[in-house]
């Protein structure tokens, strides 16, 4: 069956149910596997990373599947996807796989095919000079960034996503193509608190955040919003009913209660939070997903504010590198960023990363007490001496 | 049952599917690409064309050129859609604010999800993106593709949409970004009838389930993640397309505790592979690691000289439960005390393998911070066998859905409902007894909600009886 050029395709507006196909689900996976995968499904014995971006999986049958992994862009055009298909058709039997972290994998059955792929992939560059398919993203390095839509498509984004990811990956590119870190470092980016994706359990997470309360569009609020839903949407009860001078039903905001989560805007389009001047980037660190050695953990806010400096976010890139370099220098082999911070103590984390500790970093939401230190076990850093001095506890 | 699709699969052949000729596909030169300027000035975006990482701007620009050369006669939506998108994004950089309007209810007949409406708030300036609706397309479990399908998808999406997409969105779908309302139905039926693929989930319904690479290419897959993901996706098609839930619900299938699809952070119901027998040890291979014959971590740390492999420093002393030792040159594991963190297995993949009696752990309730704060999934069922047709697991899922649809408030994720009502009540719903595995530690407050039937004599109080013993 061919795709059709008819304007309405196979849809007949006069009889919408005609020939209609629904509820068929995804395509089945089996037909999408390269032969070496079909043949050895469930029989894999062990694997080895031969060099950054190149893996071999060895089967009990003796077969070997070689994977060449390249960094891709989550936001792409059909032109880029066709180029991926060209490479797959030419050198990988017409199959390709994408990873959870937006990488692209070509899986073949011999080292010769790996060499051919490496040579081919290196040749693909944009006219502006960027690689199209940089090889890497394996082992103890920085792999691709998972991220959200940003200004490309989202109505709640506080910052753009694709541009920040491009800037960060340019900045830490050498860690994508090498494996010199103590463990893998997973960087994630979400353009607002809704956080499409697992940003909250990443070694380093970047989060777009609003810092001004919603502007109230009194003119239309009554017409386009359910006022009780808008009021109920606020987790801190900052929204209450109000009437405008000309008698329109609306809401008012108790600004000192607002924590800028944006949940009200999700429920009511007449309460926009976006503000180019106020919006910012938050950096969180020390989260992880795997159960290896220590249980999965949340990322913690370590920089409350970085400017939303589109398009290259120099301050964000610098901060990521600062944390990354301190970790690379100090952590033990296999130690994830969060495990390192916990071993040395968060006070040492701030000292070693050269980050100031501000009042914003002390939790004051619902489970705040769980994060307070209830022990005499601490390490001395300048921050502790500053407290002693302020309390006149130092001679 | 293994590997059997639920319906006959179409063999796709791009030569049959295609909309564009080879000449139409290669319709610009590198020289033209170098000299191409889009119709808007985009100095901010153009700063993102340099640097080693793949540039989405360079990609979008060359594609804008391609659309211009294809011409409006070969395209059903505005040929300038990419140029207008770049123009709008440029304006967003200048303002530091997004220019997409809030929401918009659009969709296809009979489905309550799969399409997300999007409109520009500056449509006069950028008419090509006046409508910019998203279509979510169900990905193949674990995201393997043949190029016939992908090329067919490219032709379809170029002809009827913007040609811009995500491979893939955060939940796992293929995301087609940007088309006009009148093309939603035609695209849906071209996908379903020709490309043999359905829409994904959105809104308050089951979202497209997602799984790790699994048995396709990983020795750690402790159950068949693809098969279970596929089966559950097919079994719950109605829940996926027709919203009946308080809010979104996500299944994710991780083959082992390494958690490559992040189920523990993202899924309302996380399936994570585990085992209950002993870690398999190949003592010769252990010696191989000690003697430096194999790289530790499967070569994960090759880039730096970390010195000679030290099994104490790198494995035995790193074991979180201290259940490993070396006795007479042989590695010994006290399996009853192992919590299956996988560190030793990850570090010595040739020597150590998970047990063979495998199943899944079920954890419930992960979510991002909106609204009660981020949550990770909570371990509720430590171990279940996971074999097709997974009836035991479907029963647990059905009980969960039924309870949550009744108990959950509007826009309340399962994890929040469990927290509000109590993990004990959720155990009652599933019909499982409480277990210390479900908590990090027992409660430290004694504020127990005793039930009347728990206490001798019930809750009926008589003040006179009390006063008969105690003066006022």
Question: What does this entry look like structurally?
Answer:
The complex is a heterodimer of chains A (395) and B (472). Chain A is of the alpha+beta class and 395 residues long. Chain A has helices at 35-40, 78-91, 111-123, 162-171, 173-176, 218-224, 227-232, 263-267, 314-330, 337-344, 346-353, 382-390, and strands at residues 44-51, 54-59, 64-71, 75-77, 95-98, 103-108, 187-190, 204-209, 239-243, 249-253, 280-285, 300-307. In chain A, the strands form three sheets. Chain A has a five-stranded antiparallel sheet with strand order 1-2-3-6-5. Chain B has 472 residues and is an alpha+beta fold. Chain B has three domains: 14-194, Alpha-Beta Plaits (2-Layer Sandwich), CATH 3.30.70.2500; 210-276 and 358-438, 2-Layer Sandwich (Sulfite Reductase Hemoprotein, domain 1), CATH 3.30.413; 280-353, Alpha-Beta Plaits. Chain B has 18 helices and 14 strands. In chain B, the strands form four sheets. In chain B, strands 6-7-8-13-14 form a five-stranded mixed sheet. In chain B, β4 (164-167) and β5 (174-177) form a beta hairpin. The longest helix of chain B has 17 residues, at 391-407. The mean pLDDT of chain B is 96. β4 (75-77) of chain A pairs antiparallel with β4 (164-167) of chain B, so a sheet runs across the interface.
Helix count, DSSP H or I runs of 4 or more residues of chain A: 12
Q: What is the average per-residue confidence, as pLDDT of chain A, rounded to a whole number?
A: 96
Taking all Cα atoms into account, the compactness measure Rg of chain B is 28 Å
Number of DSSP-assigned strands of chain B: 14
Question: What structural class is derived from the secondary structure elements of chain A?
Answer: alpha+beta
State the oligomer: heterodimer
Beta-strand portion of chain B reads: 5-15%
Give the integer mean of the pLDDT values of chain B: 96
Which spans of chain B have pLDDT < 50 for at least 5 consecutive residues?
none
Q: Tell me the distance between the termini of chain B.
A: 74 Å
* Count of domains of chain B: 3
- Strand order across the largest sheet of chain A: 1-2-3-6-5
> What's the CATH class label of the largest domain in chain B?
Alpha Beta
What CATH architecture label of the largest domain in chain B applies?
A: 2-Layer Sandwich
CATH topology of the largest domain in chain B: Alpha-Beta Plaits
Main pleated-sheet profile of chain B: 5 strands, mixed
Most strands sheet of chain A:
5 strands, antiparallel
């Amino acid at each position: 069956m061919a795709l059709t050029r008819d304007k309405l395709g196979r849809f007949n507006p006069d009889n919408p149910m005609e020939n209609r196909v629904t509820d068929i689900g995804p395509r089945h996976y089996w037909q999408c596997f390269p032969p070496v995968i079909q043949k050895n499904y469930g029989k894999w014995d062990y694997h080895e990373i031969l060099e950054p971006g190149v893996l071999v999986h060895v089967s009990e049958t003796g077969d070997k599947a070689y994977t060449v992994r390249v960094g891709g862009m989550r936001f792409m055009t059909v032109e880029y996807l066709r180029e991926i298909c060209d490479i797959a058709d030419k050198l990988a039997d017409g199959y390709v796989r994408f990873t959870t972290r937006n990488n692209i994998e070509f899986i073949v059955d011999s080292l010769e095919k790996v060499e051919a792929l490496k040579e081919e992939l290196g040749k693909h560059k944009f006219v502006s000079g960027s690689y199209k398919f940089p090889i890497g993203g394996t082992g103890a390095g920085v792999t691709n960034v998972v991220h959200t839509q940003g200004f490309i498509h989202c109505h709640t984004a506080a910052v753009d996503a694709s541009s920040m990811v491009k800037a960060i990956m340019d900045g830490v590119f050498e860690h994508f193509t090498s494996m010199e870190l103590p463990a893998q470092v997973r960087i994630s980016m979400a353009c607002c608190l809704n956080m499409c994706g697992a940003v909250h359990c990443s070694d380093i997470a970047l989060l777009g955040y609003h810092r001004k309360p919603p502007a109230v569009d009194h003119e239309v609020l009554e017409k386009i919003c359910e006022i009780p839903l808008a009021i109920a949407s606020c987790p801190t009860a900052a929204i209450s009913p109000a009437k405008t001078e000309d008698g329109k039903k609306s809401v008012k905001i108790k600004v000192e209660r607002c924590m800028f989560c944006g949940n009200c805007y999700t429920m009511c389009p007449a309460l926009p939070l976006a503000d180019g001047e106020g919006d910012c980037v938050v950096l969180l660190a020390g989260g992880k997903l795997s159960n290896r050695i220590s249980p999965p953990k949340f990322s913690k806010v370590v920089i409350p504010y970085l400017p939303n400096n589109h398009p290259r976010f120099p301050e964000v890139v610098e901060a990521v590198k600062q944390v990354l370099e301190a970790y690379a220098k100090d952590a033990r082999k296999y130690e994830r960023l969060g495990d390192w911070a916990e071993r040395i103590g968060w006070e040492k984390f701030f000292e070693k990363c050269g980050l100031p500790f501000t009042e914003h970093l002390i939790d004051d939401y619902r489970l705040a007490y769980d994060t307070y230190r209830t022990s005499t076990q601490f390490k001395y850093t300048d921050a502790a001496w500053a407290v002693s001095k302020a309390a006149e506890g130092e001679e | 049952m293994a590997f059997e699709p639920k319906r006959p699969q179409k063999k796709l052949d791009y030569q049959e599917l295609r909309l564009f000729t080879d000449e139409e596909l290669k319709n610009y030169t590198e020289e033209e690409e170098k000299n191409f300027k889009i119709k808007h000035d985009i100095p901010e975006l153009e700063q993102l064309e340099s640097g080693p990482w793949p540039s989405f701007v360079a990609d979008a620009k060359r594609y804008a050129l391609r659309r211009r050369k294809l011409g409006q006669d070969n395209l059903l939506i505005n040929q300038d859609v990419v140029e207008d998108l770049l123009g709008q994004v440029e304006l967003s950089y200048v303002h530091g604010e997004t220019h997409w309007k809030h929401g918009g209810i659009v969709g296809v007949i009979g489905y309550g999800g799969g399409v997300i409406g999007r409109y520009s708030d500056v449509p006069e300036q950028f008419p090509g993106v006046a409508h910019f609706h998203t279509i979510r397309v169900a990905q193949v479990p674990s995201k393997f593709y043949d190029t016939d399908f992908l090329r067919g998808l490219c032709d379809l999406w170029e002809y009827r949409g913007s040609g811009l997409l995500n491979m893939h969105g955060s939940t796992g779908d293929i995301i087609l970004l940007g088309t006009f309302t009148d093309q939603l139905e035609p695209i849906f039926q071209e996908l379903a009838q020709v490309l043999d693929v359905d829409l994904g989930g959105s809104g308050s319904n089951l979202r497209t389930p997602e799984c790790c690479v699994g048995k396709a290419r990983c020795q750690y897959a402790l159950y068949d993640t693809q098969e279970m993901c596929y089966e559950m996706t097919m079994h719950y098609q109605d829940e996926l397309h027709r919203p009946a839930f308080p809010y979104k619900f996500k299944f994710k299938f991780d083959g082992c505790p390494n958690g490559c699809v992040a189920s523990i952070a993202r899924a309302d119901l996380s399936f994570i592979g585990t085992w209950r027998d002993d870690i398999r040890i190949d003592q010769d291979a252990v010696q191989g690691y000690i003697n430096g014959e194999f790289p530790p971590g499967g070569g994960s740390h090759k880039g730096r000289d970390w010195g000679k492999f030290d099994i104490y420093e790198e494995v035995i002393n790193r074991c979180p439960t201290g259940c490993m030792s070396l006795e007479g040159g042989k590695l010994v594991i006290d399996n009853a005390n192992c919590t299956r963190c996988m560190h030793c297995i990850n570090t010595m993949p040739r020597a150590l393998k998970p047990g063979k009696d495998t199943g899944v752990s079920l954890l419930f309730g992960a979510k991002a911070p909106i609204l009660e704060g981020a949550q990770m999934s909570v371990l509720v069922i430590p171990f279940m066998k996971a074999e097709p047709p997974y009836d035991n697991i479907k029963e647990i899922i059905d009980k969960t859905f039924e309870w949550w649809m009744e108990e959950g408030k509007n826009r309340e994720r399962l994890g929040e409902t469990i927290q509000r009502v109590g993990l004990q009540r959720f155990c009652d719903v599933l019909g499982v007894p409480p277990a210390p595995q479900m908590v990090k530690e027992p409660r430290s407050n004694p504020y127990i909600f005793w039930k009347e039937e728990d206490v001798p004599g019930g809750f009926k109080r008589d003040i006179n009886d009390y006063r008969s013993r105690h003066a006022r």
